[in-house]
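## Example record

The block below lists the input lines for one assembly entry, exactly as stored, with component labels intact.
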Amino acid sequence: MGNNTCFHCGDDCGNHPITFQDKSFCCNGCKTVFEIFNENDLTCYYDLQNSPGAIPKEIEGKYDFLSQENIIEKLTEFRSDTIEITTLYIPHIHCSSCIWILENLNKLNPNISDSQVNFGKKTVRVTYDSTKTNLKAVVLLLSSIGYEPYISLDDFNSGEKHINRTLIYKLGVAAFGFGNIMFLSFPEYFEVNEYWLEQYKPLFRWLMFALSLPIVFYAAQDYFISAYKGLKAMILNIDVPIALGVSVLFIRSTIEIMFDLGSGFFDSLAGLIFFLLVGKFFQQKTYQFLSFERDYKSYFPIAITKINKEGNEETIQVYDIEKGDRILIRNEELIPVDGILINGKAKIDYSFVTGESQTVSKASGDKLFAGGKQTNGVIEMEALKSVEQSYLTQLWSNDVFSKNKEDGFTTITNTISKHFTIAILTISLIATSFWLFVDASKAMNVFTAVLIIACPCAIALSAPFTFGNLLRIFGKLKFYVKNASVIEQLAQINTVIFDKTGTITSNKQSHAEYDGAILSDSESLVLKNSLRGSNHPLSRTLYNILQENNIITLDAFEEHIGKGIEAKHDAINMKIGSANFVGSTLESSVLNTTVHISSNNIYKGKYTFYNSYRKGVSKLFNQLKKHFDLVILSGDNEGERENLTKLLPAKTKLIFNQKPEDKLEFIKYHQSEGAKVLMIGDGLNDAGALAQSNVGIAISEDVNVFSPACDGILDASKFKQLYQFIKASKSAIKIIKWSFVLSFFYNIIGLYFAVTGQLEPVVAAILMPLSSISIVVFTTIATNLLGRKLK
Amino acid sequence: MSVIYILLTVSVVVGVTFFVIFIMAVRSGQYDDDYTPSVRMLFEDELVKEQTNTTKQTKTD
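Predicted structure tokens for the full assembly:
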């Protein structure tokens, strides 16, 4: 015993550390990795950060499918006779030493010529000599040093990924134009009546015009398109006044220089679009390494071993599985289709699907569902359906998965801009008609000036910067939100629905309570020792819970599959297992998971297993209950009802026995009643509910791997802070409202100049960027203060 | 007089050059990953040392 931490991966070495070169390792894997590094003179890996690796998993036979031609074809991005390039997703990349070791792969395998890490996406791009090594060898090498790639069905379909860089190009065009136009308009600002400058004024002006063309017609085109779409749908969104402002700016400036009336507002025009694009860029920040659009494809393997009619094993693609195929599932492999178990002892872990980590034992002839993971050696099964028709995958054919949540959601910016547009148009019309009577020559000037100065640049900027910055702060606190509009929707919810298993209960632990006659010392000794011999998941859990006891040799030990264990030691004959098996006369409760015990045919008592709830669940619910309707929507039976009612506030609704579709329908129904639903779930069975809800958040123990399609991913350790996040979203809305007030203040000053007909280009050139920048500064400072409160 | 034309041409050419370089940089994927290169840069000293080590070894061989 000792609290030695492994030199390589930092895990506890347990009772039997492996010592090598005076360093302790938790397993042979870690030792081997150390040896490799040692031999290759790469030990400075350890200088960078202590214990950076992790234990390689059991990988035997797992990657056989990678030697298949058609699969290699799909996974590589470049292939020639000698060179192959592939990009692999490695969830384990987490620090700078990971980058270091992965970029030094060529030292471990000289046939790898180059490897490049993209930290943001957690991928490594490997170039290797395909005549001397192959994809499988590369993947195995990566696995053996603790960086197992995650290859799923998803990689298979996507092929080459297209990176959308248009926004960066547009930003570049706008910045280039903005800078140069500012330069060219300097002489105009100071109105120096210098001869040569007067002389070249037209040239400067036409140059500005030329520079503004790409800005208006390329960089700003999204605003025109969006405004057109909005008007077509009879919505006055924020892009309508922006598009109006931009076109008025451009047309008026062009007319001015054409007829030599003035210098135009090209500088303001370029600045406006530049700032708007910066705002858009800021809002677009996403967590590249997380996928929010995962469906079953991200979880399922690419290939599976089929046993053909001659009894030989062959690797086939998952999509090629047909009804009636015999499939071999290895240890730790995922079951891709619904089927019937033919051979072998199945212990299926459905935690992908339900969040429940307790494995389920299945006997030959039992039905197995897609999404389960085999945890007990090799099994054979017969497919009953093809992949697309399986129970779990059927969920994805529901309409909710093709709907875009952002459509049909009116953002605060759009609500304000509707009133804003109407107000500005009214003001400009009144001012114009006033000037028509007083001085008709100024009327057109005033009309355009109002539209120019009132262009809602500051309003359009405040939401992207507030939400964008909050997105970054949330991300630091391990709450990853898909996009800015999710934060806005989060601020509006009034109902919170939780999934039970895996969401409010922890995956890792469960605890048991004993109920019955106290066992004597010798009896508990026999109990502990009998459990030691059993591999049943409940026995394992109970064994870990019970106190440490001496090891004794049992006189007799027999395990009755599906019933329990019978063990004998000295005078004690003990039975552990189901109520019937031990001869309990008590009414057995079918709802709870229990293990009964009898000694010498006298019934002693039972251990009841309870879910272990996450820390802070009770506190969180008490915080939430004041503001929201709370519902627990569980796929499990009512066994935990009593426990839950004790733990949670009285108002919480508890609904059990919900199938994935039921959850989805439940949310749909409540939404039709006007509820704005926040759904919190974790397994793939919550995917429908997460997609249907206004905001769907997945709780995840490991954000890199397990999360269904959702709007946000919350690290399990931050679960108790959920209320803080909701509160912060609400505060963000307040910040935006305040920044609107600020921008209205600028607009009033601007409107004074515009309405009185005194709007000079230099006033616009000062006022417009000034309002934009002060909004950006205000929102950034305010959200940072908000973020500081969160910690 | 014509000096203004020269200056203007020069400044526009410089501006356009930078703009073209920017477009090329984006196209080459420089903005796709804004973290890894900053770390990779720090490893480069390391690599040089490694290489000299190996050459030394081959010499002694």
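Residues 361 and 536 of chain A are 8 Å apart (CA to CA). Chain A touches chain B through 27 residues (CB under 8 Å).
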